[in-house]
Amino acid sequence: MHAGTGDVWCDPLVFLVTSRVTGRSCPLDSLVLQVPAQALLEGDTVTLRCRGRRNLSVTWVSFYRDGKELATIHKGPEMSLSPLQLNHSSRYRCKAWVDYLGWEESEAVPMRVQVAAGLGGSLLFLLLLVAGAVGCHRWNNMSG
């Protein structure tokens, strides 16, 4: 695994760190929680995926939100949340059995759910635009 600017290399299986730059650290996290990078909107479905670095197999995966366990999945590293709500905005992490390493825990990852801009906001803007145009037209007729 490559980390940093190209000067640091890690191998979490043997915890070997070599560096041309002294004093640089290298992340040895063996478990990572993947959350989609795109904007998450209310009503969407999101899949959280707990992955072992270097594609190590993971089993008995538990997912947590703000330290509270949401679910434990015996087979497969994924859990879906649907439909998303604003209260799903939080910090998530996973814990799993990672082949060759044992029980590992990921770092907490933030997930933010946004309000879906629906037809209501667009319709309100359109109504205000029409009201402004009608008001402007009446003002011009009264002035002239």
Would you spell out the secondary-structure blueprint of this structure?
Elements: E1 2-3, E2 8-11, E3 16-19, E4 31-34, E5 40-41, E6 46-52, E7 58-65, E8 68-73, E9 78-81, E10 90-98, E11 102-105, E12 109-111, E13 113-114, H1 119-143
Parallel strand pairs: 5-13
Antiparallel strand pairs: 1-2, 2-3, 4-6, 6-9, 7-8, 7-10, 10-11, 10-12
Explain how this protein is built.
By secondary structure, the chain is an alpha+beta fold. It is 17% helix and 41% strand. The protein is built from one helix and 13 strands; from the N terminus they run βββββββββββββα. The chain has one helix spanning 119-143; strands at residues 2-3, 8-11, 16-19, 31-34, 40-41, 46-52, 58-65, 68-73, 78-81, 90-98, 102-105, 109-111, 113-114. Strands 7, 8, 10, 11 and 12 form a five-stranded antiparallel beta sheet that branches. A three-stranded antiparallel beta sheet has the order 1-2-3, with no helix packed on it. Strand 2 (8-11) and strand 3 form a beta hairpin. The radius of gyration is 25 Å and the shape is rod-shaped. It starts with a strand and ends with a helix. 17% of the residues are buried. The model is unreliable at 1-9 and 11-26 (pLDDT under 50).
What is the mean pLDDT?
Answer: 78
Query: Which outline best applies?
Result: rod-shaped
Task: Spell the H/E element sequence.
Answer: EEEEEEEEEEEEEH
Oligomer: single chain
Number of helices: 1
Number of strands: 13
Mind telling me the C-alpha Rg?
Answer: 25 Å
Q: Describe the sheet with the most strands.
A: 5 strands, antiparallel
User: Could you name the ranges where pLDDT drops below 50 across 5 or more consecutive residues?
Assistant: 1-9, 11-26
Q: Percent of residues in beta strands?
A: 35-45%
N- and C-termini, Cα separation = 76 Å
Give the fraction of residues assigned to helices. 10-25%
